[in-house]
């Protein structure tokens, strides 16, 4: 297939917003945008009806999975095209975003962009160095897909129906996808705001840790060993490690075009690496998108209102 191949864009959201407008403006005549909500929302349905190629999809309440995974599954089942794009509504989609993913697929096959997480509260901002390393650098080096901006085709899945069934039994959509499709991650970033309050940032920390735990247990073990070594080094050699961690993080920021002062928090974040990992592993539940999840295994999820 080539860049003229029709694309179905699956966009889970809670309402019509700027991201919906931005993606709708980039559709070609044979493309479609599926705006997926948990329940019928008249404003979304009206806006979708007014735009060519846009459809409103009702996913229903999730049972035994996250709202995001449930929405992605519903969107893929409703999608008409062979080529699928997943995206989120929490970042700016420039006018060439969809064309970029088309070209990426034709050159590389399944392709993902990269997130840069920007904190909206003091704790989330302080943790930005950790996200730059684990959520941007590590994702890039390991070719891990990010569900906020990726493209693949149905034929890339080893078993599409099994994948959709598993989506409705887990929390992390992109974590599961990484087990079914091999991706290439390109060095193109999207700025995603996270947090908003200390509580929300702690909930995100628990969720991020559990995603790695259940979809990459080896990575969790490696992360633990490295975090322990880093914490000990920072405690024993504070001044050299202050300089080293700050310069190392500044280099990562520069490599990915992150223009934020928060690289200066690299040393205290390194000192807190083990407590942060332990906190995420110890939490029995976490809140995400207005729901509380108990995630006791890759396909063992209980969900209730927050």
TrEMBL record:
Claim: Endoplasmic reticulum is one of the keywords in the record: no
Transmembrane segments: 225-255, 261-282
Boundaries of every Glycosyltransferase 2-like domain copy: 21-116
Alphabetical keyword list: Membrane, Transmembrane, Transmembrane helix
Keyword Lyase: no
Alphabetical list of Pfam families matching this protein: Glycos_transf_2
Top-rank taxon: Archaea
UniProt xrefs under InterPro entries: Glyco_trans_2-like, Nucleotide-diphossugar_trans
Protein's name in the database: Glycosyltransferase 2-like domain-containing protein
């Amino acid at each position: 297939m080539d860049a003229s191949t029709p694309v179905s864009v699956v966009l889970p959201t809670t309402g019509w917003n700027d991201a919906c407008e931005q993606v709708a403006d980039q559709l070609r005549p044979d493309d479609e945008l599926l705006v997926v909500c948990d329940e019928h929302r008249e404003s979304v349905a009206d806006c979708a009806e007014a735009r060519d190629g846009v459809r409103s999809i009702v996913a229903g309440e999730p049972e035994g999975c996250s709202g995001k995974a449930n929405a992605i599954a519903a969107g893929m089942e409703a999608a008409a095209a062979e080529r699928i794009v997943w995206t989120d509504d929490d970042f700016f989609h420039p006018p060439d975003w969809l064309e970029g993913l088309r070209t990426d697929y034709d050159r590389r096959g399944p392709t993902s962009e990269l997130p840069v997480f920007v904190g909206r509260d003091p704790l989330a901002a302080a943790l930005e160095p950790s996200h730059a390393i684990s959520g941007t650098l590590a994702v890039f080096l390991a070719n891990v897909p990010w569900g906020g901006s990726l493209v693949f085709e149905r034929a890339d899945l080893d078993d599409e129906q099994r994948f959709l069934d598993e989506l409705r039994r887990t929390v992390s959509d992109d974590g599961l996808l990484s087990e079914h499709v091999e991706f290439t991650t390109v060095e193109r970033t999207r700025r995603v705001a996270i947090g908003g309050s200390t509580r929300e940032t702690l909930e995100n920390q628990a969720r991020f840790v559990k995603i790695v735990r259940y979809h990459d247990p080896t990575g969790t073990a490696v992360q633990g060993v490295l975090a322990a070594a880093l914490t000990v080094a920072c405690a024993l050699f504070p001044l050299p490690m202050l300089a080293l961690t700050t310069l190392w993080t500044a280099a990562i920021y520069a490599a990915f075009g992150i223009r934020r002062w928060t690289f200066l928090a690299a040393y205290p974040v390194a000192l807190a690496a083990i407590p942060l990992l332990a906190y995420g592993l110890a939490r029995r539940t976490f809140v995400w998108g207005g729901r509380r999840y108990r995630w006791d295994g890759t396909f063992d999820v209980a969900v209730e209102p927050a």
